[in-house]
Design a protein that fits this description.
three-stranded antiparallel sheet; elongated
């Protein structure tokens, strides 16, 4: 599953959306809730703030098992 969001100067997550579903609705909901609950994140370093305005992360179930 892939999610996209922005991180503001204060660490607030904005515009969280699912870009690509995994095929497992339960897993997708879990990832979405986890990212939502991480709000706010620590503020990004000032010199990298533009890089954090549009973040895309891919989560894979196999990564949970360390494998």
């Amino acid at each position: 599953m892939t999610v996209r969001f922005g991180i503001q100067e204060n660490g607030e997550i904005t515009g969280l959306k699912i870009v690509k579903r995994s095929g497992d609705p339960s897993y997708d909901d879990s990832v979405f809730r986890a990212v939502s609950k991480a709000n706010p994140l620590p503020p990004p370093p000032e010199s990298y703030r533009k890089d954090f305005m549009d973040v895309e992360l891919t989560f894979r179930p196999k990564d949970l098992a360390g494998g």
